[in-house]
Amino acid sequence: MIRLNRFIALAGVASRRQADLLIQQGKVNVNGRIVSELGFQVNPETDSVTVNGRRLTAVTRVEHWILHKPPGYLTTVRDPLGRPTVMDLLPQLNLRVYPVGRLDYDTSGLLFFTNDGDLAFALTHPRHLVEKVYLATVKGIPTIDKLRKLAAGIILEDGLTAPAKIGIASVKSGNAIVKLTIHEGRKRQVKRMMAAVGHPVLQLQRIALGPLELGDLPVGAWRQPTQAELLELEKLKQYSEKEK
Question: Is pTM, for the whole model, over 0.90?
Answer without folding.
Answer: no
